[in-house]
Amino acid sequence: VETGRRRLAALIEGASVVLPFTGAGISTECGIPDFRSPGGVWTRNAPIPFDEFVASRRARDEAWRRRFAMEEEFGAAQPGRGHRALASLWRAGKAPAVVTQNIDNLHQASGVAAEDVVELHGNTTYALCLSCGARYELAWVKERFGATGHAPDCGCGGHIKTATVSFGQAMPEEAMRRAEALALRCDLFLAIGSSLVVWPAAGFPLLAKRNGARLVILNREPTEFDEAADLVVHADIGSVLAAFVSH
Ligand code: NAD
């Protein structure tokens, strides 16, 4: 771990544009289980595909019931050492943005400006109307849900859904474009806490690497791309990155 940390520090020191790219692993120390951990909310139920959400009121009610159950479990989660370290890099001007697959809002909570958090899978801490795009706060949805027993619809008649990307739902185009541009602009790409199996997670590290950037993978288990990386650190994210939190 110590060697990995020293080599990572040297790479960061020598880089001019660092791009952190994060997955569920950065949030496990905050109490939010990653995709694979058995018993986590993510594995307890089969995900509700987008088409089903749109087509069925029962699916929408179920999606919202699950979301409120998650709120009980993880609603109070706070940023961890990994989030705080990346916020320090961002504040120091080393990292222009953070690209994340996470939907938990913890990069913003750690101090990175919302416009500099590029969310590939959206954000679960607020909701949007699928038709007109109006924004809704979860507290409002919860109150309506409690009062009627059903997920509320928007005034325009559209369905209201958390601002996340479900299976079968289109990827957010602007976020994809920005992530690609950032991957091409960086000279150091840090893949942190992602199994790198979910598309498009798999695409960005290689894009950066092929464009001449150094690639670092920080993850406690091996990933598909370890062989392509300039530095692989198989260790706990919080322990490695704690050293990069500036006070
Ligand atoms: P993943 O679960 O596929 O991979 C996470 C990786 O992080 C695993 O390889 C695991 O070994 C590693 N890891 C976990 N804790 C770690 C730690 N403390 N130190 C080092 N490594 C650690 O996650 P993914 O690649 O992000 O893909 C899952 C998808 O599910 C994401 O795209 C995301 O949309 C969604 N998801 C989001 C959250 C969240 O917002 N916090 C949580 C779970 C899943």
TrEMBL record:
Q: Name the source's superkingdom.
A: Bacteria
Q: Which UniProt keywords apply?
A: Metal-binding, NAD, Transferase, Zinc
Residue positions annotated to bind Zn(2+) are C129, C132, C154, C156
Active site per UniProt: H121 (proton acceptor)
Q: Where is the Deacetylase sirtuin-type domain?
A: 1-247
- Transmembrane feature ranges: none
Which Pfam families does the protein's record reference? SIR2
Q: What is the protein's given name?
A: protein acetyllysine N-acetyltransferase
What species is given as this protein's source?
A: Rhodoplanes tepidamans
The beginning of the lineage is: Bacteria, Pseudomonadati, Pseudomonadota, Alphaproteobacteria, Hyphomicrobiales
